[in-house]
Every structure is written in C-alpha cells, then in structure tokens.
Amino acid sequence: MKLANLNFKPVVRVLLAAVIVLSSFAIAIAPASAETYTVKMGADNGMLAFQPKTLKVSPGDTVKWEINKLPPHNVVFDTSSAPDSGLAQKLSHDKLAYAPGDGYEETIPEDAKPGTYSYYCTPHRGAGMVGELIIE
Ligand SMILES: [Cu+2]
Questions:
Q1: Ligand 1 centre and the CA of 19: distance in Å?
Q2: Average pLDDT of the segment spanning 89-98
Q3: 63 within 8 A of 37, measured Cβ to Cβ
C-alpha cells in the first residue's frame, strides 16, 4: 500500500505531526549525561582530608560532600584564586556539618567558568584538609 493512498483524517495527520515535532524537540533538549560525585569529608584511613582530594567535573554534574570521619567539617572555596569568585562563593558552605552522612550538595551551573577551584575545611585547613574542584 502506497503512503499516498492512506486516507488519514485531518485530525490524525495533525496529531502525527505534533508527535514528530515534540519527539524531535525532546531529543534536542535531552541533557548530556550528568554525573553525581561524592567527596568524603575525613578520609577512610582517618586522615583529615577530602577524599578524593581532586575532582574533575563538568557543568551539570552534582557534587556531594559528605561527613565520613573526624567531624566537624565544612567546605569553603578560596574566592581570591577562583576563576569565578561569585561561583566560589556560591559553592561554599561555612556552616559546619557533624553527623555521618550530613553535608552539602551542589550542582555545577551550565555557565560555570572552567578552571581550578580550590577549597578547604575551616577547622582543619592547617592540617592540610584542602581540595580542588576542576571544572572542565
Ligand atoms: Cu575538617
């Protein structure tokens, strides 16, 4: 049977057109595969450290900092060295977290300026509890 011989009613043709348009739109706006990463606050070996210390992320990715060992901890970004001091400020959480599993969650904005964002834990900065978020 030839397609031209199909006698679709006008309403069916409109619905088919709508489905085609909407499905192509859905493909166009489908986000790239965003990842969720967890950074432990307090290393498994009992060191005052972020684990992993360095993390590479892309815009749209989510980072969770979670209390693991030796609380309290926090996450404060160094605004003076950051590629975007406003973003560094936004990602910072100076309120201390105490309970295992507690922490902070941030999604990297789509318009984030790439580069290395350094951060530290306020009570343990002197002990070397520092980390880096590399936005690609
Ligand atoms: Cu700490």
A1: 53
A2: 98
A3: yes
Q: Say which residue the tokens 């965003």 belong to.
A: 34
Render 22-54 in DSSP notation, one character per residue. HHHHHHHHPPP---EEEEEES-TTS-SSEESSE
pLDDT digits (tens, 9 = 90+) for 37-57: 999 999 999 999 999 999 999
93 included as an active-site residue: no
Average pLDDT over residues 4-11: 59
State the residue for tokens 């975007």. 84
Cα 103 to chain centroid, rounded: 14
Q: What is d(CA 99, CA 42) in angstroms, rounded to the nearest whole number? A: 12
Q: What is the pTM of this model?
A: 0.77
Domain 36-135 coded CATH 3.30.300.20: no
Give me ligand 1 centre to Cα 121, in Å: 5
The domain limits of the chain are 36-135
